[in-house]
Amino acid sequence: MMIIQSITTSNFGPFPICPTSRHQSQSCKIIPLNLVSSQKGQELTSINHNGDKTCECFDLHKELVPYEDAWNWQKMIVREKIGLIERNEECPDTLIVLQHQPVYTMGTASSIEYLNFDIRNAPFDVYRTERGGEVTYHGPGQLIMYPIINLRNHKMDLHWYLRELEEVVIRVLSSTFSIKASRIEGLTGVWVGDQKLAAIGIKVSQWIAYHGLALNVTTDLEPFNLIVPCGIRNRKVGSIKGLLGEACLLNGHTDAKAHHFDYSQLIDITSQSLIREFSEVFQLQIQQRSVPILEFLMKKPES
């Protein structure tokens, strides 16, 4: 199912924007999503609110999904929703939660000056996408939230939408981890002090918003050192695990039990909180769905 694609830059010529076996994890499940339709899942459970707007949710937070597959899936759902609108049919929202294999992504106008490596010998695959924002890193331990939102059902205001996505993360950090996070004027994302925990980048087509946010939970932050994350040079990148570890040390504790949970549970806890707070902020009834046609393949080491 792999399709080799390339894009051209004036300085470096073509460079690959699809995953290669050289960079893929050798022990993770690879989830091909190219055949998935947003209408083909099985409904599981729901989170209900007083509002009458619904949102189907594909919760793949335990899996590492290749970036290109998730990207193509989003674009397919966007096309479906635009078709529904053109036919004057109901167009509900969709939410996808997952993790990615290690990858760098760039926005449509991102500058290669924020890459601290030779693009011809990149440590991970590099994708230039149609979202806004500069370069960032995605990898295991980072939760990705892709809301595919019909802004006609909410508010047709991109600044409002970005602030609401930030609000979701701020509430998660506060309600679940007692971490006080904030916005920084003039910058998009969620911060704790000078550490950026969540990056946000979106694309809107005919008032259908897609792409979304990335929240560092247990992420290895080393790959961020090879870029200037989001094009911001004077600030750091942080993670929930890192902040909790700092809190333990400040309180004289040396293990995670002081926070009443195991670090291995952080992804599950954070994912549940993200979905719950997303439902609250956007006043949506969440309809959890499975995707039974996915093939779960174990990646074998290259010979």
TrEMBL record:
Its EC number is 2.3.1.181. One of its GO terms (molecular function) is lipoyl(octanoyl) transferase activity. InterPro entries: aa-tRNA-synth_II/BPL/LPL, BPL_LPL_catalytic, Octanoyltransferase, Octanoyltransferase_CS. Transmembrane segments: none annotated. PROSITE patterns: BPL_LPL_CATALYTIC, LIPB. Pathway: Protein modification; protein lipoylation via endogenous pathway; protein N(6)-(lipoyl)lysine from octanoyl-[acyl-carrier-protein]: step 1/2. It comes from the Eukaryota. Keywords: Acyltransferase, Transferase. Residues 89-282 form the BPL/LPL catalytic domain. One of its GO terms (biological process) is protein lipoylation. Belongs to the LipB family. This is lipoyl(octanoyl) transferase. It comes from Salix brachista.
